[in-house]
Design a protein that fits this description.
The complex is a heterodimer of chains A (153) and B (422).
Chain A lengths: L3 H7 L13 H9 L9 H5 L4 H10 L11 E3 L9 H5 L1 H6 L17 E4 L2 E4 L17 H4 L6 E3 L1
Antiparallel strand pairs in A: 1-4, 2-3
Chain B lengths: L1 E2 L19 E5 L2 E6 L3 H8 L6 E3 L2 E3 L1 H14 L3 E5 L5 H13 L3 E3 L7 H8 L8 H7 L2 E5 L3 H4 L3 H4 L13 H4 L1 E6 L13 E3 L5 H12 L12 H13 L3 E5 L1 H5 L5 H10 L5 E5 L6 H12 L5 E5 L5 E5 L5 H6 L5 E5 L3 H4 L2 H4 L7 E4 L12 E3 L10 E4 L5 E4 L3 E2 L5 H11 L1
Parallel strand pairs in B: 6-7, 6-15, 8-9, 8-11, 9-10, 11-12, 15-16, 16-17
Antiparallel strand pairs in B: 1-20, 2-3, 4-5, 4-17, 7-13, 13-14, 18-19
Helix pairs in contact in B: 2-17, 3-13, 3-17, 4-13, 9-10, 9-12
Classes of the chains: A alpha+beta (153), B alpha/beta (422).
The structure holds iron/sulfur cluster.
Iron/sulfur cluster binds next to helix 1 of chain B.
GO molecular function (chain A): 4 iron, 4 sulfur cluster binding; metal ion binding; oxidoreductase activity
Protein name (chain A): 4Fe-4S dicluster domain-containing protein
InterPro entries (chain A): 4Fe-4S_dom, 4Fe4S_Fe-S-bd, 4Fe4S_Fe_S_CS, ACDS_complex_subunit
Chain lengths: 153, 422
């Protein structure tokens, strides 16, 4: 899982404030929270000396279909569909106390994680505890995965 | 192809958990998605490739193959029937009838798997419980020589570690402790974090003795490298468990020559605590075979039916009737293999002996063993193309309802037809 220091180390670390933040560290924190984009840092985007780091950061934060808005990535090739994350996710448990909370098939459409055809898929990610202003660093789905198939960026 | 009107949920025959909450999505007459099943179950459920029966490697129609199989079995003096762990209980009962009819030896994979433990459970010599009890009550789980994340992928999410249960309402991190004891790190041991105890191969018995000493307040001693404090910590967790469950994997069973040490350890542990044991049987209906043969003969495997002088059947049982001994000693003169693949599950030195005897296979899938088989009869996939009953890892009977009807005969009916021919 990417942490704020890793992101910070890839930034120019000049505290130039062009992005509107007071420090590169503040920008790194907001980048992790997905409040800003890599391209909002104009030096890293435009200056040749940062070209490698720009590439690394864009790879980390690429907005493909695989990465949900909460920054959740499921490495499908590692997922065995065991469903540990589905049952351990506290949001799933509170939304579906008669289904996934008991280890059974989901009975609610509000669940964040469910196993479709052998692989875990996410939906309703705005419900994830790592999403939005009030977010907390919940890691229930990460620590219960036997194959490190879930990651948050 | 007919699609059955099903309950909302289907049962997965991918392993002996027999998960009963699978949601099937159809595309026309094909199974498109099997939701809630793990990847192992999905590949089992969705593989409905049509294959043909064969005689000497040439495709034939099924009736010809059945006729040839009946002829070979009828002419055999010492036939062996092996497999049946991926068949319904109904098919297993027919195979036992066939074994009686032709005075055959009958054995299954439990012969070199969890047979001894299942035998002790059926004889009430080991305390056990159901998976539903595990979900509702278990506070301490021990995966001993077992790696359910790979062998039974949904065990932890559906029953053991993560679900909420009647007396386990607060979530796994507060309510349950999971322990792994194994010779190496595995996808299951990583879930147990600090409660993973790595021990050298075959030292399981020694650890049990050390734990027993610790239970009674003595200093535990072992010859391998592990801190005494860790053994004391483990013994404390085990002693304080309100409802403990040991999931006994093949690693534990293979580390022992008998199961006396395991039995004694459980008895000792239960003078302080409340522990149960569930054997991690693999194939979806291995326990069904053990139960069916036990009900008929008093033995879970390794049985030979012999007609005595007065025309009645004698039941013989012993190591010499195990499939491995039979093949090693070149005893059988015809072998019928049902729903299993010796070339992937047995040492090659033993499996290759099959090349020297007429071999008949009943299987829905292509197997390595069929390359050397004289007759291959294609059957329907049980639980997917045909129904029946099966016995789950914990001894609970589960009904399998077919999802599609491919028109293929199931192994139960194939065995009946062979008996009619004979
Ligand atoms: S755990 Fe076993 S029974 Fe359950 S879905 Fe996976 S293969 Fe099927």
């Amino acid at each position: 899982m990417t942490n704020v220091m890793e992101v910070y180390n890839l930034l120019p670390k000049t505290n130039c404030k062009e992005c509107g933040k007071s420090t590169c560290m503040a920008f790194a924190v907001d980048l992790l929270a997905r409040k800003v984009k890599v391209d909002d840092c104009s030096p890293i985007k435009n200056e040749n000396q940062y070209i490698e780091n720009y590439q690394k950061l864009t790879d980390l934060f690429k907005t493909s279909d695989d990465v949900s808005e909460a920054g959740l990535i499921v490495h499908e090739e590692k997922c065995t569909g065991c469903g540990n994350c589905v049952v351990a996710c506290p949001v799933n448990v509170s939304h579906d106390p008669k289904g996934v909370a008991l280890g059974k098939a989901p009975k609610s459409n509000k669940v964040i994680l469910r196993v479709i055809d052998g692989v875990v898929k996410s939906s309703n990610v705005h419900e994830c505890r790592r999403f939005g202003e009030e977010k907390i660093l919940c890691n229930a789905c990460i620590v219960t995965c036997p194959n490190k198939a879930i990651e948050f960026v | 192809m007919v699609i059955f009107l099903r309950n909302k949920y289907s049962v997965c025959p991918g392993c002996s958990l027999l998960c009963d909450d699978i949601e099937i999505e159809m595309k026309g007459t094909e199974i498109d998605k099997a939701n809630n099943a793990c990847i192992k179950g999905v590949s089992r459920i969705k593989d409905t490739k049509k294959l043909e029966s064969k005689i000497d490697g040439n495709e034939v129609n099924q009736d010809e193959a059945i006729f040839k199989a009946a002829e070979l079995l009828q002419n055999a003096n010492n036939p062996l029937i092996f497999g049946l762990d991926n068949s319904t209980t109904e098919a297993q009962l027919e195979a036992i009838k066939l074994a009686k009819l032709i005075s055959a030896t009958i054995d299954d994979n439990s012969s070199f798997c969890q047979g001894p433990i299942v035998n002790a459970i059926l004889k009430n010599e080991l305390k056990t419980c159901t998976l539903d009890d595990v979900r509702d009550y278990a506070d301490v789980l021990v995966f001993w020589g077992a790696d359910p994340s790979n062998s039974h992928p949904r065990l932890n999410s559906k029953y053991a570690y993560y679900p909420r249960g009647k007396e386990r309402q607060r979530g796994w991190d507060e309510d349950r402790t999971a322990i792994a004891i194994d010779v190496r790190e595995s996808s299951s041991s990583v879930l147990c974090k600090d409660n993973f105890y790595q021990i050298p191969p075959r030292s399981d018995g020694e650890l049990m003795t050390a734990l027993s000493s610790a239970f009674s307040g003595k200093m535990p001693k072992v010859s391998f490298d592990i801190e005494t404090q860790r053994i004391l910590k483990l013994s404390n967790i085990l002693k304080k468990a309100k409802y403990g469950v040991i999931f006994a994997g093949l690693g534990l069973t293979y580390s022992q020559t008998g199961i006396e040490t395991i039995k004694n350890f459980l008895t000792e542990l239960n003078t302080y605590s409340n522990f149960h044991l569930i054997p991690m049987v693999g194939h979806y209906n291995m326990r069904g075979f053990n139960q069916a043969l036990y009900n008929e003969t008093g033995y879970v495997n390794r049985v030979k039916f012999v007609k005595n002088e007065s025309g009645n059947l004698d039941i013989k049982h012993g190591l010499q009737y195990s499939v491995l001994e039979q093949l090693n000693n070149k005893e059988p003169d015809t072998v019928l293999i049902i729903g299993t693949d010796p070339f992937t599950s047995m040492p090659h030195s033993v499996a290759k002996k099959l090349k020297e005897v007429p071999t008949i296979i009943i299987d829905p899938c292509e197997t390595l063993t069929e390359k050397i088989a004289d007759v291959v009869i294609r059957s329907a996939k049980s639980g997917i193309e045909c129904g029946g009953n099966a016995i789950r890892i914990d001894g609970t009977c589960v009904e399998l309802v077919p999802i599609i009807n491919s028109g293929c005969l199931c192994d139960e009916h194939i065995i009946c037809k062979i008996m009619e021919e004979i």
